[in-house]
Structures
1.
Amino acid sequence: MPRISEHVGIERKPKLGGGGPGKIPHRHGYGGGDDGDHDQPDDFVSPKDRLRRYRIGMAAAIVAFSTFFIGIAVSYTLRLGVTHWDEDLGKSVRDAHPLALPYIRLFINSFILIISSITLDLARRGLLAKSEFAVMGIAPPRFKTELPWLGITVVLGVAFLIGQIMVWNILRHQGIYFNSNTRSGFFYMLTGAHAVHLAGGLLVLLWALAASSVRMRFESRQIAVEVTAWYWHFMGILWIFIFGLLHFSRG
Amino acid sequence: MQNPVPITTQTTSTSWLRRYLFSTDHKVIGLQYFFLSLAAVFVGMLLSLLMRIHIVWPKVAIPFLGAIKPENYLAFLTMHGTLMVFFVLSTTPQNGFGNYFLPLQLGASEMAFPKLNRAGFWITLLSFLVLMAAFFVPGGASLAGWTQYPPLSAITAAGPGQGHGTDLWLLSIGLFCLASVLGAINFITTTLKLRARGMTMMRMPLTCWTWFVTAILTLLAFSVLLAAAIMLLLDRNAGTSFFVPSGLVVSGASVAHHGGSPLLWQHLFWFFGHPEVYISILPGMGMTSHLLSVFSRKPVFGYKAMVGATIGIGALGFSVWGHHMFVSGMSPYAGFAFSTLTTAIAVPSAVKTFNWLGTLWRGRIRFTVPLLFSVGFVSLFISGGLTGPMLAQPALDIYLHDTYFVVAHFHLIMAMAGVFAIFSATYFWFPKMFGRAMNHRLGVLHFWITLFGAYAIFMPMHLLGVAGNPRRYSELTGVQYVAAMAPLHKFITVAAIITIAGQFLFLVNFFWSMFKGASAGENPWQCTTLEWRLSSPPPQHGFGNNVPIVHHGPYQYGSPELNGRVAADDFLMQDAPANP
C-alpha cells in the first residue's frame, strides 16, 4: 500500500542542498592512503594514481614558487623608477646604477641548464615508460638504463651552480656587491634565490640516484624523478625569465 | 531509517611516539595545530589584557613585569597581533579543523602528502617557539607592529626591540610562510585527488570549498610574504637597501643604506595581508554555512551562490590591498580603483549574509551551542562588515585610519567573527574528535558572556575612533580631548577582563568534557556528511578499506521525502544508497 504523504495537493520536488542525486561519475582512484613508503596497511592506491597526485602537488608548488619570484621581480621593476633628491647636484637622481652583466658566462650557464633539462627529460620519459610495466605487474623494471641520464643531469646542475658562483665572482671583482645599489641587490637576490631553488631540485635527484643502493620502491623513485623534472623545467624557464629581466633592465 | 554501522577498523601497531607525537595521521596533526593555537590564543589574550590595563591605569605595576614602559606596550601590541593573526586565526580554522575534517568529509583516509603535513606542523611549532623567544632576547620583542613597516623595522637603532627581536620575528614569519605553503599544497591536492567516488566538487560540503579556496589564497599570498620577509631580513643583516631610503637619520645617526623604498614593503605586505584576512575568515564562513544548515534542518540556501561567493571573495581579495595604504600618499586614481574594488567585495559578502539568513528562515532551529556561535558569527560579521565600505572611502579613511575606529572594524569582522567560527566548530566537532559531548549549559553561558563581551569591548571603540582617539599609543593622558574619553576606556577594560574571565569557562568545559563528558555516539547532531559515518573518535586509519560511495549532496535535511524516497528521519547521509 502506498504511503500517504503528509504533503497533499502540491507536487513539490524536495529542495536539494547542492548536487542532487545522480549517477556516479567515473574517475580514477579515490580514498586516501599514505605515500606508500611506510607501514600503513591501507595502501590500496595504484602507483598511477600516486603519480597523478604528486603531479598536482608539484603544479601547486610551482604556482607558489612563481608567486615568490614574481613578487621579487615586480619589486625590482618598481624600484627601478625610484628617485631621490641629491643635495649636491640639486636635482633628483635615479637610485639604480647600470649593471655590466658578464654575458659570456651567463650564456654558457643558460646553455648548460637547457641541456640538463633535456637529459633529465630523457630519464623521466624512460622511467615513465617503465612504470607502465610496473603497473601491469609484469616484472620489476630495472632502473639502471636511466641512471646515466640522471647522473649527467646532476653533473650539469652542479656545473650550472659553479657557473653562477663564477658570475658572482666576476661581479665581485668589479666591486659590485650585494649591498652596492638597487640593481646589484636585486641581481644577487634573483640569481641567488634561483640557485638555492635549483640546489633543492639537485638534492632530490641525488636522492633518487642514491636510492638505488637503498631499498626503495621503483614507483617512489620514478615519481621523484617525474616531479623533479617538472620542477627542473620550471627552473629553466624561470632562469630564462630572470636572464631576460636582468638584460632588459640593465640600464 | 538509515542505520549506518560506524566504521571502526582499528589497527594500532605503532609506538606511542609515532602514533601521537611524530604522527603522519591527519587527525593527530589537526589536533596538534589546534592545541598550538589554544596556547597562542591565551598568550595573545594575556597581552591584550596587559595593554588594556596599561591604557586605563598606566602607573599600575604588573606582577613579574613592573610598570609597563612605552616600548613594552609596543612589544605587546606587535606580539598580540602576530600571535592572533598567524597562530590563531590562520592556523585553527584551516590547519587545525581543515586537517582533521577535510579528508574525512571528502571520504579520504589521509591527506595527499602525510609526511609533508607532519613537516608543516613541526615547522609551525618551530616558528611559534622562535616568535616566543623574542621576549627573552636583549631588547625584547619587536616594536614595529604586526605589519613591520620599514624603515622602523629595518633599522636596529630605531628602538630596543628592533635588534634581535625583529630578526626573530622575521625568521618566525618566514618559517610560518613555508609551513603554510606546504599545508596549502596538501589541501589543494587532497581536494582535487582524494575525493571519494561520487563526491563531485558540487557535492562537497561548503567547509571543504572554503578550505580549498583558502588553500589557493595561502599558496599565492604567503609566497609573496616570504619573499618580502627575506628581503627585509637581508636589509637588516646583509646591508642591502630594498626598503631603506636614502638620507635617513635614525636616533641622531645617519643610516648607511641608500636607494630603497619603504612603500615597496607596504605593497608586498598588504598583497599578502589582505588575502590573509580572507584566509582567516573564509573557513569560518564555510563552517557557519555548514552549521546553520545542520541546525536549521534545512538545505543551505543557495549552495551554488555560496560556492560562487567564496571564489569571488577569494579572487577579489587579491585586488584590494591598496585600501590599507590610502594615507601612504598614493595616487588618487589608484585610491579610487582600490576603493571601488573594495566596495565590490561587499557584493559576495552580502550574498553570503543573505544566504545565511535564508538558511535560518523558517527552519526548525535546534538551539545548540554551535548554532548560537554560528548566529553570533553572522551578527559580528554584519556589525564589523558594515564599517568596511566606510573605511573603503579614501576621504573617510584618511580621517579614521589611525584611530580606534579601524581597531573596532577589524577586531569585529576578523578577530571576533573568526573566533566565533572557531568556537562553533569546536563545540560542533568536539564529539567527533573526543567521543564525548561538551556541557550544554556551560557552553550557553560561555556564548552569552563572549557575545556581550565582544560587543561591549569593540562597539565603544567606534566612538573613540570617530572622536579622534589615535591607536598604537601607550599613553595619552596628557592630551586634553583624549583624556575626556577615559571613562569609555575604563568601560572597555572592565568588559575585556570579564570576557577574558569567561573564556576560562570554555577551557574548563573543554578539558572536563574531554575526560568526563557524556558519551556522544557517532552522529549526535544527525548530520549528513561523511565524517559522521565513522566512530567517535575516528579510527586511526579513517575509512580504511570501507571507502564510502557518495550518492547525495551534503545538505539533505528537513523533508520527509528526500529524493523521492521515504525517509523515517529528516536527513539523508551522503553515502546512503541512491535507490531504496
2.
Amino acid sequence: MRLFVKYSRVNIIASIGALLLGSIGYYFMIRYVLVHQLDDTLKVEEAEILDYVKTRDRLPEPANYRDQQISFTPAGSPVARKFIHTTGFDQHHNEDRPYRQLLFSVRAGGQLYTASVSYSEEETEDLLRLMMLVTAGMIVLLLGTLFLANRLLLRRIWQPFYRTLEGIRRFNLSSRQPLPVSNTDIDEFRSLDEAARQMTNKILKDYEVLKNFSDNASHEMQTPLAIINSKLDLMIQDPGLEQVHHRPIQAMYDAIGRLRQLNQSLLLLTKIENNQFVHTEEIDLALLTREKLVQLEDRIRDRHLTVRADLDKLCLPINSYLADILLNNLLLNAIRHNQDGGHLEILLRERILRISNSGPALPFDPATIFDRFTKGAHSGGTGLGLAIVRQICDNYQFHLTYSYVDNRHVIGIRFPPLQNFDKMQG
Amino acid sequence: MKLLIVEDEKTLSDSILSYLTRENFICEVAGSYAGALEKIELFDYDCILLDINLQDGNGLELLKQLKANHKSDGVLIISARNSIEDKVAGLHLGADDYLPKPFHLSELGARVAAIIRRRNSGGNTLIRLEEIVIDTQARSVSINGHPLDLTRKEYQLLLYFAYNKGRVVSKNAIAEHLWGDDTGAAANYDFIYTHIKNLRRKLVDAGSRDHIQSVYGMGYKLALS
C-alpha cells in the first residue's frame, strides 16, 4: 500500500469520526438552544395569562392559532409546572405535529384550572434540519479539500524520497558509482539521503577490501602450493629415488591438485558472487555446448558413454567466461558421476537446457545438491562445481532444477525471456 | 640461452633455477623489483620469468619499463593471481604467456622453451630428437624423413616431452597440460596411459626407437641416448 493511500485512509477515517461526533454534539446543542428559546416564548405567554387572571380574576379566551394554542381545563388539584414535548393535530396540514407545551395551574373565579400553552416545534425542526444539511455539506467539502491537498502536498514533499529510492535501486556494485546527491530542504530526507550514501560508500569500500582479500588469499595460498609442487617435480628427477616413494609422491601430487582446484573454485565462487564478471556478449549456447563436448571427448570415451545431444540455437547475453564454466561444470559433473557405458543426454529446446546422465541415486539429500561441499564420499571433486553453477544461475536469474527419474540425474536450466535480461541489466 | 627469474619466494626460485639450469640455460635470479629493474636495464635476456606480486613493486611495471626501453626480451608471467584481468593486462603489455601458480616445472619448462623458440627460431622451426623431427610451424612430425600421422593430443604430448626431454614428467602435469585445470584430483589417469600407449606404438611402428619410458607409477620420461 502506498504511503499516500495509507495516510489518506487513516486521515479520512479519523476526520469522519471526529466530524460525526462533533455533528452529533452540535445537533444536541443547537436543539437545546432552540428549545430553550421556545420555552422562553412559552414563559412570556404564561406571564401574560397570569397577569390577565390576576387583574381580572377570569380566564382569557383560549386561542388556537396555527402554531400556538392556549387552553384551560378545570382541575381538581394543582399540577406541577412543567415543559413537555407532545404532539397535536394540525388541521391545516391534517396531520400530527410536534409541539412544545407548558402546563401550569391557575386559579380564576375560585376554580382551579390547568393551563396549557403549546407552541409548534415545526419551525425549530426545520431550522435544525437546515443547519444539519449545511453542516453535512461543509463536512463533504472539508474532506474533499483535505484529500486533494494531502495528495498534492504529499506528492511534492515525498519527491526527494523517491529520488533517493530510485538512486538506491539503480545502485550497482560493479559500476562503482556512488549515489547521486539529492537536494532537498527537508531534514528527514536529507539525513536519509546521507545515510544511504554513507551506506553505499561503505559497501563500495568493503567490496574493494573483499576483492583485494580474495586476491591476497589466492596469492598466499598458491605460492606455498607452487613451492611444494616444484620440490616434488625436482624430487622425481632423482634417479636414486626408491620405488617405495613413488606412491606417496603420487598421492601428494593428487592432494596438491585438489587443494589448487579447491582454492581456485572458492575464489571463482566469490568473484561470481561479487558480480565481478560484468562484461556480457551474445553467446550461442548450442555452439558452445558442442565445443565443450569436443573438449571433453577423451573423458567421454574413457567412460564409454553414449552421448545424445539435441541442441536448438539459443543466443543469450552472458559473460563468455561464465558461460564456459557453466557448461563445463555441468558436463563434467554428468561425465564424472556417470557409470561406465552409461548415457549422457543434452537437450536445448525452448529456452530450457536439460542435461541428464545415468547413475545411482544420490547418497545425500537431493535438496542440497547445489550447496557448497555437497558430494558423495568417493567423489574426487571439490564439491563446488554445482555450487558455482547455482551461483551463475542466481546471478542471471536462470531457473535451476534437479530431479532423479528412471535412474537418471536430470539438471535443468530455464532461461528467462529476453526482455528480462534487459531489465536485469538496466 | 639466458634467463632471468624474477621471484621473491626464494625456495620457489631455487626450484625453477635447479630445473631450468639443467636445460642448458644460464639462469639469473632477481628476488626483488629493484633487483630485477637493475638487471633488465643492464642485460638482455632471452626470457624473463616474471612474478607480478613482488614485495616492493608490481611486476607489470617492469613490463612497462621493458617496453619503454625498447627491449625485446621474452616474458612469461608467473602469477599467484589467477585473474583474467591480470592475464589480459599482462599480455596487453607485451608478455608472451601467463602461467598461474601453482604450476608444474615441466609446464614452466615447456612454456619457456616455446617462447624462446618463437623468438629466436630465425626461421628454424624444427626440433630434432635423434630420428624424430617435430615441425612446430606445420605442427607435423616425421621419423627418418617419413611423415607420421598423429592426433592433436598425441602431437601435444610429444612436443611436451620434447620440451622436457630427459626429465620425468608427472602424470598430473601431463593431465593438466592436455586437459586443462579441471582434470580433477584422483582423476582416472587411464586416458593418459591410452594416449601415451598410442603415441609410443605409432613412433615404434614408424621405425623410431622407443624413447618414452614409464617411471613406475609417477610419470613418463623421454630419454635420448
3.
Amino acid sequence: MKRTLTCILTITTLLTLLFTSCNADASAGLFKQLADAKKPVEIRYRQIIGKDDTDLYFLTNDGIYKTDGTTIRGNKKGHPVYEAYIDKSPATHYIIYLINDGGTAKVYRFDPSGNPDPEMTFGTSLVEPKIKHLLPNGKVVVQGKKSGKNAFAIIEHNYTYDTSDISKEVLFEDLDGYGLDSILFMSGKQQDPAEFIISFVTSGGSYKHYYTEGTTAKTYELTLNKNKNLAGFWTNGTSLYLITKDGNLYGSDITDVPTGPTHMKDLSRQFPSNAFVYGMSSGGTTYLITKTKTANEALFVVSFADDTITPPVNTKVISTGYASQMSNVNIVSAFEKSAGNLLIATEKNGMFDITITDAATGEGSSAGPEDYTL
Amino acid sequence: MKKPLTAILTLLVLSSALFAAAPHYDKGSQLFSFKVGTTLPTFTYFFGSKDLKGGLGEGKTGMQVGGYGGISYQVFNTPYTAIGGEIGYNFNFAVDKELFTAVPFYAKYSYLPLQGKWEIPISTGLGFAYIKYKDAQLMTLYTNLEVGVTWYPGEHWGVALNTGLWLIPEFNYNDAPKKDNALAGFVPITVSVTYRQ
C-alpha cells in the first residue's frame, strides 16, 4: 500500500513538473491572459488597402469595403479576396484584388459598372509564371523558370491598360529548392510604392533575403549571420534595421550596398510574421515601436541613437497612452495618416486610431476600436 | 458573502446533528456518480498586483459561463464519511471566443450527515488540474468545497443538485509569467446521478 502510494505521488509530481515546464513557453500568465482578453468586434480586418481623398478602403474576411459604408466587392463563396490594392493613378481609382480560383491565384480589376471584372494578365520574362501575391503597392510576385531554374519576379503593372513593364521587372534567379517565405513592408507604409524585403527559404531552413530599395527598385541580398527568419524592418533611407522572429535586431548602413547587417542586440522577445514595426526619430534617438508575441504586453519600444548600428540598444514595454489598447490584439495592417498618427487594424478587435507624441514614454492617445478619423 | 456561507454551514451542521441518528451506510459501502452542469468563473486574484477581478466577462475574469462533466467514486471508511476521487472536464469560453479548459483530478473526502432517502453530502477535494488557454498550459493544484442535496427515489439510484467553490492557483516559475501568478475561483452548479451500494 505504501509502495503504491509512493509510486502514485512520484508519477503525479513528475507530471506536475512536466506540465509546469510547458508553461515556460507561455508569454504571460494564463489567468492574466484571460482577464485581459477582449471581445472581438464584428469586423475581421485583413488589410488596410489605402485611402483616396475622402475614404479609407480596407479588406476584411467578408470582402473589400470603404469607410462611407460601400461594399466594393463582397466575398463570393469559395473565392474570398486575399490581397488588394488601390490604384490611384487614374482619376477614377481602380481597386485591384487577388483571389484563389481552384488553386490558381488570379488578379482582377474591380468594375463598378456591374460588368464582370476583367482578369489582369501579367507580362514577365519568366517561363510558366504563376501568380503568388498581389502586393499592397500594386506590384505582383510571380514564380516561374528562368534558364531552366526556379525564379521569382516582381512585376510592375499598368492596371488601366493591363500591360506590364518588363523593363522594370525585378528578378530573383537561381533559386532551385527555395520557396517564398515572406514579403515585408514597413508598418504604416505598406500602401506606398516603397522599400520592401522579400525572403526565400528552403525546406532545410536556409534563407535568402533581398532588400528592394524604394526609388529605383534596386535589389540587394542581405546576409544575416544567424537567426535568419525576418519578422519586420524599418528604414529612414540612410540606415536599415531588421528584426528577426526570434528577436534579434540588426542594423545596416544603406547609403552603400547593404550586404551584411550588423547584429545589434538580442531583444529577448519573439515576434510574429509580418510584425508591426513602426519607426520614428526624436531628439537624436530612433524608436522602433513594435508588437511582439507577448500577448499582454501592449507595445515594445526599441531605441538607439539615430543612424547607429551598434549598441547600446534600449528596450521598454509601453502600456499607456498611445499603447493603451494594444495588449491582446493581433495587428494585421497599419496606415500612417501622418508622422506619428496611425490607423491600426487588428484581426479580431477592430481598428484603432493612435497618436504617438512621445514614443519613449507612451505619451499620446488611442481611440477605438472603430472610433477613428481619417 | 461571508454571512450567507456561515449560515449555510451552520444549518448543515445542525441538520447533521438532527438527522445523524440512523446511518444508511456501512464501512465499505460505495458511491458512483456522474456529474454534469455549469461553472461560473467568480474571481481571479493576482498576487503580484493584488488585483481582484470578480465576475463574468471583459475587464473581469475574462471568462463566460461554462460547462463541466465528471465522474467520481467513493467508498465509506466510516458510516458517515467516504473517501475517493473525481476526474472531470471543464470549459469556459473567454470573451475573445477562445476556449479555457481545465481537467481536474483529485482526491475527495465527503461527510454525509443526512442519509437515506434524502442526503446532504459535504465534500472537499484536493488534487491537480491541467489547465489550458491559447498558448498557456500547465498542471497546477486544485481544491474545492462542494455541498449537495441528493434524492434517492429507490434503493440504489439517486439524483443530486450540487454547488460549491473551486480554487485553482497558478504558479509560474518562468520570469515572464511569474508576475501574473494568480488564484482563480469558480462556482459549479451541477446535477449528478449517483448509484450506491
4.
Amino acid sequence: MAIRSTPRTDILQGTLDMLILQTLRWGPAHGYSIAQAIRSASNDAFRVETGSLYPALHRLEQRQLVRAEWKHSDNNQRAKYYRLTAAGRRHLAREQSRWQQVVDAVHALMRPREQEG
Amino acid sequence: MRWPGWFGRRRDAEIDEELASHLRMAIADRLERGEEPDAARRRAFIECGNPVLAKEATRSVWTWTAVEQLATDLQIGARVLWRAPALSATAITLIALVIGGNTTIFSMVHAILAKPAPGVAADRLVTLGWVTDGEEHPGNSYPNYVDVAAASQTLNPMLAAGFKRLILTTTEGSYAIKGATVSTNYFETLGVALARGRTFTAQESRLDASGLVAVISDRLWRDRFGASPDIAGQTTILNRHVTTIVGVAPPEFRGVALNERSDVFLPLVASALIDGQQAMLTDRGAPFVIMIGRLAPGVALAAARAELATIAQRLPRVAGDTARSRTIQLFPYSGTAAGDSLVAQRGPWFLAMFSIITALTLFIVCANVANLMLARAVVRAREMAVRQSFGASRLRIVRIFVAEALAIGAAAWAAAALFAFWTTRALPRLMRPVDGDSAPVAFDFTPDWPVLGYAMLLALAGAAIVSAAPAIRACRQDLQPLLKTGEQGVIQGRSNVSNGLVVLQLAFSVLLLTTAGLAYRSLAVLSGSDLGFNRDRLLLVTINTKAAAATSAANVRLLERMVEGVRAVPGVSTVSYARRPIQNFWVPERLGGGAGERPIVAERNEVGSAYLRTMGVTLIAGHDFDARGDAAGAVIVNQRLANLLWPGEPAVGRTLRLGTSAQPLVVAGVAPNAFYSGYRREPDPNFVFVAASHALPAPDEATLYVRYSGSEEGIAPAVTRALRAIDDRAPIVYLRSIEEQLEGLTWPIHALAILLAAFAVASLAIATIGQYAAVAFTMRRRIRDFGVRMALGASSADILGSVVREGLRLTAAGLLIGGGLSIAAASGLRSMLFGVTPTDPRTYAVVFALLGAASLVACYLPARRSARIDPMQALRQE
C-alpha cells in the first residue's frame, strides 16, 4: 500500500505489535496511554508516533487480537479502549518466546569469544 | 467483505475522533505538567506526528482488500473522467467502437461455429469425424454406425442421420421438400421433445405392412396440413409411398445442420428399403450418414475419444480397403459442424486468426486513447508531482492512472455490449434465403455470456494498454524541475511512437474506405448494368420432374407440354425452359473442333425451344430451336464464341464437339453477346446452348422462363395452377422474378459493402481522433516555444501553418501507405468486384479527399488553439 506504513521509530514492525500487546496485559487502555506506557517503560527509548501506533492497533483489531470499545476516561473524555482477547494472549505468548530465541541467538553471536592458545 | 461508503465513512469518522482524542490527551498531559498552553499544543502536535498520514495509514488497514480498493479506485477514476467529459467521452467511444465491432464479429463467428441448431439441447453432444490415412470424412456407412453405437459405452445414445430430397403429395398438389432419414433414437439423442404425437419405435426401423412413418416439421404442418390438431395418424404421400404422420417437431427445430434444414424425418432403414436402396444398409464402404452422440453421464471427452479410437480399429474392413490407419475423432457439436468435422476443426484456427486481428486493432485504438491521455498527462504532470511530494507513492500514482483506465474500460464495455446487441440483431437481416427455402438461415448472433466475457477481456486489455503509457511516464518523471518551475520543456516526448501510430491508423482507414468504396461502386455497376437481355417481367419457375417423368425422353416431352400449358395462361407472352436457372456460373465446357491451339471454354446450358426469344434477344444469324426438334441444328453459340471458333466466317451450319463427346453438333444460330448466366467477373464469357430435345436431360430440376405482361402477383398463381393442371406430380421447387434471382447473386457483396462501410466510418473516426490527440500533444509540449516565437514577431497564422503542416505530413504518409495496402488488398478481392478495377481512380480520389479533409480538421482544431495563445501568458505560465 501507499502511504508510509513503516514506523519512523526504530522499532521493528512486528515488535511494535508485541509491545502493544504486552502493555495491554495490565488491562484495557486507550491509544495515548499505550504510547505513554511504552515510552516510560523503555526509559524514553521508544517514542511511538500516531502514524505507527494507530495502524498497528487497527491491524491488531482486524486480526481480532484486541477488541476495542468507546468508553469515557477518568477525566470524562470519550476514548477508544483496547482490550486483549484470548487469541491476543496466545499470540503474545508465542511472540515472547520467539523474541526470547532471537535475543538469545543475537546475544550468543555478539558475546566476545575467548581467545585461543 | 467490507464496502466503502456507509461503513467506510463511519470508520473515517471514528479514526478522526480517535486521533483527536489522542491529541487532546497529549495536550492535557502537558498542561498538567505546567507547560504554557501554546507550547503544550505545539509540542503535542510534534510529538504525535502528521495526523493526515496517520489517518491515511490507519484507514488503509481497513480498506486493504482488493475489491474495496478497486471500487475506491474506480470511484476516483470516474471522478477524474467526469472532470474532462469531452476527452472521456471520446476515449470511451473509441474503445467501445472497437470492442463493440469485435464483439459483433466474435458473436457471429461464435454463433456460426459453436452454437447448436435451433431446438437442439447441445450440452455434451459430440460429432463423430472419420479419419482415414489422415484424411477427414464427415460421414460414414450405416453398418459402421450400427457397430459403433453398439460397442460404445461412453457415447450413449448415438444417432445417425442422412439427407434426402423428397416430393410430398397432398390433396392440394405435390411439393418439393427436404427431408432427413434418421435412426429411431434421433429425437431422444438431440433432446428434442415433439410438439405433437410421438417419435419412432424400434420396430419402425424395419419396414412392415404398416408402411412408412414420418415426423414432420412445424412449418410443414402449418403450410401443408393447415395446422390440423389431429395430424397424428393421418396419411400422406412421400415419393409416391403412402406415409403415416406420427408426430410434429417443435417450431424451432429443423434438423441438426443449419445448412441442410429438414421438413420431414423418416426412419432411416425403412426409408432406404422402400426406395430400393438396400445396398446402403449393408455396404460398409458407402458413406451416407453423419453420427452425433451424447456423452454418457460422468464421462469426459478424452475418455470417449480413447474408446472410439479403439472401436475404430476393430471395425471390419471392406474388401480391397488399403487404408493404413483409420480412426474416429470427436468434436463438440454445433449447428454448422453437425456432420462436418472439417468446420469444427478449422473453427479454432479461424478464431485464432481473428484474435490476432482483434488484438492488433485493439492495440492501435488503445494506443490512440493512450495518446489522448498522454496529452492530458502533460497537463497533469504537475498535479502528479504535487501528489508525490505530499507523500503519495509512485504505486499510488500508477493506480490513479489504472483507475482511470478501468473506469474507461468499464464504460466502454457497457457501451460495446449495447452496440453488439444492436448490430447482431440487425445483421441477420442482411442474410437472404437459400434457394428453395422461404426463410433465411436463422443464425442466432445475439451475444451470450461467453461473448460478453470475451468483450470484458478486451476491455481489460484495453484498459491495461491505455494506462501503461501515462503511468510509466509519471513514474519516470523527475519531480524536482516540475515542482520548482512547472517547466514543461522537461517532459520527455514520445511523439515518434504516437506519430507512427497515427500513420498506421490512417493507412488502415484508407484500406477500409477504398475497399468499401470499391464494393459500393461494384453494386452501382451491378444495379445499373446492362446484362444484354431483357430483365423486365421475367418469371423463373423451378420444377422437379423426378416423380412425374420416368425417362429422359418423357422428361423433355413433359417440359414442352408445360411450356405449351403456361403459354396459354392469359398475360404470358413467351415461355421456354432451361436446365439451369440464371446463377453465378453454368457448367464450363471445353470445346473441340476449334481452330486455335488453346482450349476454348464456354458455359453450357440445355434449353428448350424459343429460349433466346424468351430472354428477349434477337439472333444475329440462324434460328432459335423449335418445338419439333433440331432440324436446323443442335446448338446455338454466342457471337464471341463464333468469332473465336470461326473468325470472319459464317458459323451457322458448322459443327463443334462438346467436351469428350465425339459426336459433332450442328450450329443452328448465333446469339448476341450477353450475360446469360448473370453477372460475371470476366467481361467476355462464351456461351453454348444445346437443344434439350437433343441433349435429353434426365428428370430432375428444370427452370421455366416465363415472359409476361401485367403484374407478377397476377401471373404467378395462374402459372402455378397451369403447371398443376398439366402434371401435379411435378412440384414447383421455387418461383421468383429474375430480379429476385439476380439479387440472390449480389447479396454477399451488398452485405460486404454495408459491413465495410460501417467499419470504414469507425476507422475514419479513430484515425481522426488519433491524429487530433497526437497534434494536441505536440502542441502542449511546445506551447512555450510558440510563445517565444510569437513574442519574436511570428503571427498566429505562422504558428497555425506550422502546426497544420506538421500534422499533414503524417496524413501524407498514411495515405501513401494506405493506398499501397488498398491496391494489394483489392487485387485479392477482385473476385468480389464487378465492373471496377482494383485501382479505380474515382474511388481512390474520393477516399483521399475525404480522409485529407478529416485530417485537416483534426490538425486545424488544436492548431487554432495554439495560435490563439497570448504569448505573454504562455511564457509566464512556465
